[in-house]
């Protein structure tokens, strides 16, 4: 509200000229959109060549949301790097120091990336900053990145969490939900939004 009205009018004209006033901008391809939101001086009209070394599926969602179920239904053929599994291997509690867990996860991701092998990365990844560190790693190896966000209705999520082998305290779940930053189409090449059931919606740029 503190911007002069003429500035808003200039913005409206620019958006209309670029065809993105009432709809998303139509990038040349998914990689063009991905690079645009990563560059300090982006170019709307740059057309990059799309050639990927592999595909990484990055899962995002609160504990108990159904990420493992989604993977088993939709990416059962992929190897998975899972922070929960690594915690189990190392005997590290979710509330403990995660340094060794993250380091081992990065090493395993690099192994797949160096081998140009597609894989899934399964963790809560509910903060954009946290996702960004992993996305940077995957992008360094020219991977195509698909983000999958799983969010069932909250009451169903709490019920699913209670039925887990090691449920997260409800108070913690509610705090995590308040901090959650769902991924957007600006962060990767593809975005899949899932309701925790068999139905899902794929959103492209």
What is the CATH topology assignment of the largest domain?
Answer: Rossmann fold
Cα Rg = 19 Å
Give the tally of β-strands.
6
Going by CATH, the homologous superfamily of the largest domain would be P-loop containing nucleotide triphosphate hydrolases
User: Strand content of the residues, in percent?
Assistant: 15-25%
Mean pLDDT: 91
* Terminal-residue CA separation: 29 Å
Name the overall outline. Answer: globular
Q: Could you say how many structural domains there are in total?
A: 2
Helix fraction, binned, reads 40-55%
Give the helix tally. 8
Q: Low-confidence parts lasting 5 or more residues at pLDDT below 50? A: none
Order of helices and strands: HHEHEHHEHEHHEE
**Class computed from helices, strands and strand pairing:** alpha/beta
Mind telling me which CATH architecture of the largest domain this is? Answer: 3-Layer(aba) Sandwich
Query: Which CATH C-level class of the largest domain is it?
Result: Alpha Beta
Can you summarize the main beta sheet?
6 strands, mixed
The main sheet orders its strands as 2-3-1-4-5-6
